[in-house]
Write a structure and sequence with these properties.
The structure is a homodimer of 301-residue chains. By secondary structure, chain A is α+β, with helices and mostly antiparallel strands. The first copy, chain A, has a single domain (2-294), classed as oxygen-dependent coproporphyrinogen oxidase (3-Layer(aba) Sandwich). The first copy, chain A, contains nine helices and ten strands. Chain A has helices at residues 2-24, 69-75, 135-150, 156-167, 195-220, 227-247, 249-256, 261-264, 285-294, and strands at 30-35, 40-48, 53-66, 81-93, 100-111, 117-129, 169-170, 175-176, 180-187, 271-273. In chain A, β2 and β3 (53-66) form a beta hairpin. Chain A is globular, with a radius of gyration of 19 Å. β10 of chain A pairs antiparallel with β10 of chain B, so a sheet runs across the interface.
Chain lengths: 301, 301
């Protein structure tokens, strides 16, 4: 399974970066291959200063060895071997009219002393962070997520949509990071779902990413915008930074377990502002976005 | 003591904000008085878009009531009453030639059921974060810190200088946030230091702030700088954000105990950049700064 999934994310990284370069029309992904001293490594691909993408990364990694102490405590296991691989992407478009997007698909294995798998699971998801809310875009994104989920279980979309709203939440601001999507973790073999079934589900979601995001980019990338709208985007990007550095378990985990810092922090936006006590004007588009972030909506009835 | 110290930080806030407005010559501090629902409140003063100061805050607060659950666990005490007050300041100058500065002086009391003090202590410090290193400025700042310390105990400066280097450290980057200064905490009554002695020490440091920082601002504020130097400042400000959101106990404490968010996060810089895998050129001024951040220097021999 680990080889099959790693092969899958390698191919998916190629497909996604190639598609994004086509859309951007100017910038190309720069590739960094890195090794982890304790075992494994990754292929980081970052795009900067494009026509469409101001900054973004589409990274894969596959790491293995002794489970680090901090992870032993986290997973409540002893001194075991592990393997983990995944694809993580974050794209920060230049225009405030195109949302930032994040996605991640990952697979984890733990082994006993004889190298037998004692536990394994999939996790991941994809979620959208708009600066201006186009309801049809939110509906399109969620509809694509739901279609991918429904092929596997009709309960997946409502369950993982709710988990996404709960996870990507800036508790200190009482607002969501964005308008959500899917978030799932610890997808383990059960009576009804084998690991093969989970592989099919996770790769279905992975394959849906381009359909979920790219039509939104194409529809909004050439819309005009003002300097004030750009400032709003940079202020909202500050909230993205706050989530990733204060609340995101994946980021903190990476920072505290000696991960490759530049691959982890590629998620941070290129240009950000913090303005003291900023509040959008009553009745503005900016205020409408905040209202939705404070009370997540059902995008599909 | 609590009334005396609160009176002191009120006066110090007036003195510092008045001096900074004089230097800035354009922007004035905007004042927000806020109340804490559970008891106490604060007086936040923020300056933005000045000639010299792009953003900064000089805030005081005095809060009291039942010690929040998270703080009970942190201090390993039961359900007790507390009082805490302090002055916190962060100044982000517009020009990369003037360092960012942070300072904090605080006092804490805990009470038994009869309202008797069961524990009390002072804490605080001041530290400098330059974007370009002028060695004479670093020496001036540390010399002023040392002079204030030496009046009370010759061991204070070396001890609190070292603690400052250790505390303001971005472990995930293997570098200090800045070039240090002083950091002290849990300054409690001992055989040689009464609380009155500690009050005299802490206020001595508080009174030294203007002498430590203002001459540096005056000397560097009108130096010319390039767009590339400004970009470097914004990239380094990203490291400031990383420290405050990932490592700073005070910030995380505030965020997780329902503090006044805008007063806590006034410390974040106004405009920030994150560039993937950025490294200064060999032999550049930027690289010299990094070298000092990676191995803290003794500024006073």
């Amino acid at each position: 399974m680990k080889n099959k999934f790693y092969q899958y994310i390698q191919n998916l990284q190629d497909t996604i970066t190639s598609k994004l370069e086509d859309i951007d029309g100017k910038a190309k992904f720069k590739q960094d291959i890195w090794k982890r001293p304790e075992g494994g490594g990754g292929r980081t691909r970052v795009i900067e200063n494009g026509n469409v993408f101001e900054k973004g990364g589409v990274n894969i990694s596959g790491v293995h060895g002794k489970l680090p102490k901090s992870m032993q405590a986290y997973f409540k296991v002893g001194n075991v071997d592990f393997f983990a691989c995944g694809l993580s992407l974050v794209l920060h478009p230049k225009t405030p009219m195109v949302p930032t997007v994040h996605a991640n698909w990952r697979y984890f294995e733990m082994y006993d002393k004889d190298g037998e798998i004692i536990d394994s699971w999939f996790g991941g998801g994809q979620d959208l962070t708009p600066y201006y809310l186009f309801e049809e875009d939110a509906k399109h994104f969620h509809h694509t997520c739901k279609t991918a989920c429904d092929k596997h279980n009709p309960k997946f979309y409502p369950t993982y949509k709710k988990r996404c709203d709960e996870y990507f939440y800036n508790a200190h601001r009482n607002e969501g990071r964005g308008i959500g999507g899917l978030f799932f973790d610890y997808c383990k073999a059960t009576e009804t779902m084998t690991m093969e079934n989970w592989y099919n589900f996770v790769t279905e979601v992975g394959n849906s990413f381009i359909d979920a995001y790219v039509p939104i980019v194409e529809k909004r990338k050439d819309l005009p915008y003002t300097e004030a709208q750009r400032n709003w985007q940079e202020i909202r990007r500050g909230r993205y930074v706050e989530f990733n550095l204060v609340h995101d378990k994946g980021t903190l985990f990476g920072l505290k377990t000696n991960g490759r810092i530049e691959s982890i922090l590629m998620s941070l936006p290129p240009r950000v502002q913090w303005v003291y006590d900023h509040h959008p004007e009553a009745g503005s588009e900016e205020e409408k976005l905040i209202a939705v972030l404070k009370s997540p909506r059902r995008w599909i009835v």
